[in-house]
Amino acid sequence: MIYSLYIINKAGGLIYQKDFNEGLAHLSSNEYLVLAGTFHGVHAITSQISPVKNSNSSGLEVLEADTFKLYCYQTLTGTKFLIIAESSHPSIDAILYRTYDIYSDYVMKNPFYTPEMPIRSELFDLNLQKLMKQIGG
Amino acid sequence: MIYNMYIFDRHCVCIFYTDWNRHRKSGSSSAVGTTSSSTSMNGQHDGDSGGSSSPAHSVVNNHLTSHHSTTSQLTSTTSMFSDSRLINIEEESKLVYGVILSLRNFVRKLSGSQDGFLSYRTSNYKLHYYETPTGLKFVINTDITVDSLRPVLRQIYTNFYVEYVVKNPLSPNEHPGGEGVNNEYFKTAVDKYIKTLAVYDS
After folding, report:
1. CATH code of the domain occupying B1-20+85-201
2. S-S: A47 plus which of A59, A126, B37, B85, CB 3.0-4.6 Å?
3. ipTM of this predicted complex?
4. B38 touching A, CB under 8 A?
5. With respect to CATH, is domain A2-135 assigned 3.75.10.10?
6. Which of B2, B39, B31 is nearest to B14 (CA)?
């Protein structure tokens, strides 16, 4: 079961947030913005504190908590896709890539969309819903 | 593969640090936590040989006998990084503390449970986290294939920390100066225990 999706732009601003299933606390939009900003900072630091010598670590990829797991996929342009799912949910990676596809098709290819700004696109919402239905989330 | 371990008290002070499999240049064994003065750290940076055998150290030894233990500690903590890694252990432990505290609050906000944050992983390490009800934070870094080490951290807390540190009447329960847990029994017990684990160098 997938709880929610966050999209964070390369500056750490939350540009999309949607809950698909109940299970997590509901916060105000301000608190979501704060969480996204926090995550952005933490993500940058986690790649710096790698204990492995002479190798470049990525930022945080999976965060395990007792009631959920958070998966983060950072695109080459710095946009981060976060999916929060049930701990037992298998193969989130494919869903992350699918979400990125949908984002490219319905957000980035939209000529009226200003980059780095909040996403308000009906088609994007619609296709995300479709994807979630497909995977039974 | 287990890389290193930190213990933080509830005031954000790193009271214990030790590492394994990190292939340091200096031959000194597990170093203790943070030390307070960061200005002298830069001055000690070239002293990579670690031990008190270097000439610079014997000079220090002659002039400031009382300060000798702190300077040799500084040398051993700064020399544990390769040249490519410029952050020293004191800064690193602060970053680690910031990360775990932020993530703990992040998880608390979303799930509402007090003790929700278990671990995270990146492309080349995994950090395991355990917090006691008193606010002590145990952190251990491993490679990404290792399963949850929370039971191990709990063991270290109940079997070693409580036995050797808490029950020791001479050990301070607050560490304002950052001297940390300077306890041989605890250090060797933790070292021995970690080395018996199957994941230690697999």
Report:
1. 3.30.450.70
2. A59
3. 0.91
4. no
5. no
6. B31
